[in-house]
Amino acid sequence: MSQRLKHTELSAALYEKMAAFSMATKEKTSIDQGLLHLIDIRVSQLNGCAFCLDMHVKQAKIHGERELRLHHLSVWWESELFSAKEKAALRWAEAVTRLPEGGIADDLYQSVRVELSEQEVSDLTFAIAAINSWNRLGVPFNVPHGIADAYFGLDKAGLN
């Protein structure tokens, strides 16, 4: 599968703005960076974005995430390896990504609020919006996984 077009060049100004937004969700946030890696991975799994999944697994590994947790992420609700707060954030990420008909139910929101503050839910939702946006570029344009490894230093993950 080859990349369909080079959106980063064709729409460079938009790409730069989106990158700045995405960076802001990582730098100015109440959410732990490790949890943000898990969110990026899970959302990318749901959306089928190979580029983003590859990138975020490598980032998580570089930042110390345990491999077993990465393997369990696709079944996080059954795994004992995730805290209640992580499970609430993953539940919210899935709901925001899938946006059920009729919206997100109040009981789901309330169950997330048990573990996350209003600030955390707000910051998390912006981070979820960012990774969903990246997925919605990576999937339609067939962005090949691994092509930015050297640029982002992801080759340090030791995953090829």
In short:
The protein starts with 6 loop residues before the first helix and ends in an 8-residue tail after the last helix. Helices cover 65% and strands 0% of the residues.
Structure, explained:
There is one protein chain. With 160 residues, this protein is mainly α. The protein has one domain: AhpD-like (Up-down Bundle). It is 65% helix and 0% strand. It is built from 9 helices and no strands. It starts with 6 loop residues before the first helix and ends in an 8-residue tail after the last helix. The model has no long low-confidence stretch (mean pLDDT 92).
What keyword list fits this structure?
single chain; 160 residues; mainly alpha; AhpD-like; 65% helix; globular
Largest sheet, strands/sense/barrel: none
- Tell me the CATH superfamily: AhpD-like
Secondary-structure content class: mainly alpha
The number of helical segments is 9
